[in-house]
Write a structure and sequence with these properties.
The complex is a heterodimer. By secondary structure, chain A is α+β, with helices and mostly antiparallel strands. Chain A has a domain at 82-120 and 127-145 and 212-320. Chain A is built from five helices and 13 strands. The radius of gyration of chain A is 33 Å and the shape is elongated. Chain B is mostly helical. Chain B has two domains: 1-94, RNA polymerase sigma factor, region 2, helix turn helix motif (Rna Polymerase Sigma Factor, Chain: A, Orthogonal Bundle), CATH 1.10.1740; 100-174, Arc Repressor Mutant, subunit A. The chains are: A alpha+beta, B mainly alpha. Chain A binds chain B through residues 1-2, 5-6, 8-18, 21-22, 24-26, 28-30, 33-41, and chain B through 1, 18, 21-22, 25, 29-30, 33-34, 37-38, 43, 46-47, 50-60, 63-65, 73, 76-77, 80-81, 84, 106, 108-109, 112-113, 116-117, 120, 131, 135-136, 163, 166-167.
Chain lengths: 321, 174
């Protein structure tokens, strides 16, 4: 039926153009008439650009896959961002942070945190228990931590000693991290660390003065600063901020790491030391994300949970005060 | 129905002067008029389309890249000009005193051909265009899709509807 109809359609006669059409065209041309025809010619760049873009995307994807598969992520790889490091346009100096050396790992997601709001640090002493739980079934002890804030004097200056000490599977001889700050302005005075038998530390000069801020946050969870910073920072449900911190890698090399912090919700947690209404803060750096539970009333860090691989969780919980 | 067209390439026409345009007209005008007539449905509109094509041709050659046959390129340009004319007519709702199905048809048609021509003329523009290009001019669905800015599937659907509509109209008249 269709074939028959198709044949009939093709056999429909069509009239001839009238002879005067040729003369009409000639007259229009002679009169200077111009008509722009809808040709199908594409500008050459419109033909080339999609091919170049597609090739670039494929190359980029292959490079990324190869890097993920074979690359040593801790190996020194200069990034384009390092080109600006140290310049006035680099985020850290532009926002009054001093870190501007080395390479940068990641990019801050939120507004940068600088100095903490002035809020009193509450003296006290708190104990934590560290555990590692694998597959949700096997829990192993990972030592204990003690965190304290105590009044003291340093060279006649009224100060606070913020100290974290403890033991763990990998530091059977114990460690101590002490930070001394002036009591009135939180100016940094001295930072001492002892890990096993290896002491270390530094004194901060009076000028230029440097004050306790989020850029002193440590990312290995053994230092003192995190807990103090959360006590100093009033949180709310929409609180978020990022910070660039120095990250020392082997071989001796300083890279700049972006840490992103965000309140993701609130939760009531029950721990050996009691029950607490807390803000849950997500702390992201590199590919890791930890959750820090901060008491709504005191600003005290009562719990830290960090996934270790896909099947284990490392936790610190408040066990006494 | 296909006819062999001698390939006249613009490269052999360094400047499309009046004589060269005349050569092109002699070679292609009849074929292009035929295509335009089938698309727009009247001799007057088809002549206007051919007129526009040949008046604009010298300037349009600046965009011709010799990547295909010249006659195929001319046919594509003619289809586009015809479609533009068809659309502008639809926008202006330019309707003659006759209904679309009663547009004068060439003399010498058999009664059956008159019925068939009326059925084709009665089709909506979108369906008629696909029917003409596919069944009467031999374009592929892919080519129609590229010309009309639609998908090949849409082209197939429109052709199916057009053929069904023509068949139903012919059956109603019987």
């Amino acid at each position: 039926m269709n074939r028959d109809l198709r044949t009939k359609l093709q056999q429909l006669p069509v009239p001839e153009p009238r002879p005067e059409l040729r003369e009409r065209i000639r007259a229009s041309r002679a009169a200077g008439e111009r008509i722009t025809l809808p040709t199908d010619a594409e500008p050459r760049w419109r033909l080339i650009v999609p091919h170049v873009a597609a090739a670039a995307i494929v190359l980029l994807a292959l490079s990324w896959i190869a890097y993920q598969r074979f690359g040593d992520r801790d190996r020194y790889v200069p990034s384009a961002a390092s080109f600006f490091a140290g310049s006035p346009f680099w985020p850290t100096p532009a926002l009054s942070q001093e870190i501007a050396t080395g390479d940068t790992v990641g990019r801050a997601r939120y507004p940068l945190l600088d100095r903490v709001p002035s809020r009193d640090l509450r003296p006290g002493s708190w104990s934590y228990r560290a555990t590692m739980t694998t597959d949700g079934l096997v829990t192993t002890e990972q030592g204990h931590r003690k965190f304290s804030i105590a009044p003291t004097t340093v060279g006649g200056v009224l100060a606070l000693a913020i100290v974290t000490s403890g033991t763990g599977r990998y530091s059977p001889e114990g460690f101590t991290d002490s930070l001394l700050v002036s009591r009135d302005s939180l100016r940094l005075l001295r930072h001492s660390k002892r890990y096993g038998k290896n002491p270390g530390g530094r004194d901060f000069p009076a000028t230029p003065a440097r004050y306790l801020s989020w850029r002193d946050a440590d990312i290995n969870w053994v230092g003192s600063v995190y807990r103090a910073l959360f006590q100093l920072t009033p949180l709310n449900s929409s609180w978020r901020g990022s910070v660039y911190v120095p990250w020392i890698t082997y071989p001796s090399r300083v890279r700049v790491l972006a840490i992103d912090l965000r309140v993701t919700g609130s939760e009531r947690v029950t721990l050996p030391a009691g029950s607490y209404d807390t803000w849950v803060v997500s702390v992201r750096f590199r590919d890791d994300e930890a959750r820090v539970y901060v008491s709504k009333t005191s600003g005290l860090v009562v719990k830290i949970a960090m996934p270790m691989g896909e099947d284990a969780v490392w936790e610190q919980v408040l066990s006494g005060s | 129905m296909s006819m062999t067209i001698p390939a006249v390439r613009p490269s052999s026409l360094p400047r499309v002067d009046a004589q060269a345009l005349g050569t092109l007209y002699d070679t292609y005008a009849r074929q292009l008029f035929r295509l335009a007539y089938r698309l727009v449905g009247t001799r007057e509109d088809a002549e206007d389309v051919v007129h526009d094509v040949f008046v604009g041709l010298p300037d349009a050659f600046a965009h011709y890249e010799e990547r295909g046959r010249l006659d195929a390129w001319l046919r594509r340009v003619t289809v586009r000009v015809a479609l533009m004319r068809q659309r502008s007519r639809e926008r202006r709702r330019e309707i003659s005193l006759h209904s679309a199905a009663d547009v004068p048809t060439p003399a010498g048609l058999t009664p059956e051909q008159i019925e068939l021509q009326a059925a084709v003329n009665a089709l909506p523009g979108a369906l008629r265009t696909v029917l003409v290009l596919k069944e009467m001019e031999g374009y592929s669905h892919a080519e129609i899709a590229a010309l009309l800015g639609i998908s090949a599937v849409t082209s197939r659907v429109r052709l199916y509807r057009a053929m069904r509509s023509v068949r139903e109209r012919l059956e109603d008249r019987q």
